[in-house]
């Protein structure tokens, strides 16, 4: 039985990223909320959101480059 290793790697990367964000939001923001309250927790959420913008832009550019390369090879 043949296994699709690319699909497996993609699923694994997605699950790791999802777990990272669950831990980041749950433990990180949860502890901020527990010790300092809702205002600082919302500020932490805003900081996390703003920090994700460059990462999302880079991911989109790499996805676009991958699409261009696949089209070019055909």
Number of domains: 1
Which percent band covers the strand fraction? Answer: under 5%
Q: What is the rounded Rg?
A: 18 Å
Helix and strand string, N-terminal first? HH
Question: How are the elements arranged and paired?
Answer:
Blueprint: H1 5-36, H2 38-73
Outline of the structure:
By secondary structure, this protein is mostly helical. Helix content is 92%, strand content 0%. It contains 2 helices and no strands.
Description:
This protein has 74 residues and is an all-alpha fold. It has one domain. Helix content is 92%, strand content 0%. The chain is built from two helices and no strands. The protein has helices at 5-36, 38-73.
Question: Keywords for this structure?
Answer:
74 residues, mainly alpha, 2 helices, 0% strand
């Amino acid at each position: 039985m043949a296994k699709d290793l690319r699909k497996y790697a993609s699923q694994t990367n997605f699950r790791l990223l999802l777990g990272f964000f669950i831990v980041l939001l749950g433990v990180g923001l949860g502890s901020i909320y527990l010790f300092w309250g809702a205002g600082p927790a919302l500020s932490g959420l805003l900081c996390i959101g703003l920090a994700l913008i460059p990462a999302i832009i880079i991911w989109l550019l790499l996805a676009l480059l991958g699409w261009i390369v696949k089209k070019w090879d055909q």
